[in-house]
Design brief:
elongated; 2 domains; 3% strand; 2 strands; two-stranded antiparallel ribbon; Four Helix Bundle (Hemerythrin (Met), subunit A); 10 helices
Amino acid sequence: MLERAIPGRGLHGRVIHELGLRIVSGSLPPGCSLPNEGELGAELGVSRTVVREAVKALLAKGLVEVRPRTGTRVRPRRSWHLLDPDVMAWQFETVEGTAQDLRELCDVRAAIEPSAARLAAERRTDDERAQIDAHCRRMEAAVAEPMALAVAEADFHAAVVDAAHNALLSYVNAVTRVALDATDAPSDPTPAAMALRRDVAGAIRRADPVESERAMRSLLDLWWEHVSQRTARRKTGVT
């Protein structure tokens, strides 16, 4: 399980979240100096020690740098640790740039999940095959319940990636799930999407790496089309 700086998790987590969100949203743009510890502490209602520890956490995430005589400055986006669960999620909690962030997230999924599906078809155990099939059935049962469908879909994709038996792929997939949880990008309940999910599960069951990779790639293409259409409708005020 990846740990995040949840605002409700003590003063430390709240301050990390607040400052991180300000940086990622652009309220504190690259190159600007953060207020000193006393000013930030007074504004946020916390001690200097809490602020200092929060800044250390932001430093570890690549969001800020500390230099003698110039203080703490915000770093450019290219220096951020974009696969950090907090940084990834904060990007989707902001209004600006969400469409581009979703596009980048889709690119990452397209680079990872089809290959993971191929490997899963080659490496999955019988128990893992059964889990993938079970998650597929859960999605079919939850097609009319958006929240239940989203949970089942997340479990399905995680099970496929984990069946590839590659710890790095599983880690990156877990980070993308954090990002997806921070968005309102819906699961696709359409018959076409459900058919492709069954295709992925079936190909992995049959140990067919070529078909499992193809089906997963098609599923992700359809997901991006679904998300893009919804984003376009929201921009025009249509829900």
